Amino acid sequence: MMTRKILPFAAAVLLAACAQNNYTEQSEWPQAQEIDDFAADGRLAVKIKEKGSYANFDWRYQGQMQTVDVNTPLGNTVGKLCQDSLGVLAVDAKGRVYQAQNAAELSSSLLGFELPLQYLHLWASGKRAAGEPYQILADGRLQQSGWNIRRSVGEQNEAKILFLENSKLSIRLVFDDWDKLPKSERKMQCAERSGAEQP
């Protein structure tokens, strides 16, 4: 779906944003304990078999629940993923809601690629998943759950660029904003769950 909405200028903007800043490459990946709640937004670039697609994202992580909204650079909705303790929901551009236990299947059908939602908040926070085999590569990248992960950070150790790569595709998230959220604002369940159906 997203591959039909490729905008060449979006690629140029994304690359320019990466080139204009001197960020620090992370080389240590401590085991995750508790991750701070956060709200983040930015731009997303995906490359599959030499084909690229680009979008904007809004991401909220609040303990047991996290949501990722994906929109085209022109603001049109591509879809939304929501994960809570009961599983994963996907909402498509027409507002139809689907659910599953696995985020990979839903993100593939909704976005056209697998988004590793299960550990994405950990890697974006500079942590590795506890209890999951891992390796720290010579260049400082984390290798875990079938992905090679590279993270660049700003002065406050906040995520600026998160690059994920496996044998099928590469995903680059460039963060414009990263803000901590108070735990008092936590929500425990996806709001769309009551209207969900099986795909």
Automatic annotation (TrEMBL):
* NCBIfam families for the chain: lolB (TIGR00548)
Residues in the signal sequence: 1-19
| InterPro entries attached to this UniProt entry | LolA/LolB/LppX, OM_lipoprot_LolB
Gene of this entry: lolB
Gene Ontology cellular component annotations, sorted alphabetically: cell outer membrane
Instruction: Please give the family membership noted in the entry.
Output: Belongs to the LolB family.
* Protein name as it appears in the record: Outer-membrane lipoprotein LolB
Q: Which species does this protein come from?
A: Neisseria lisongii
GO BP term, pick one:
protein transport
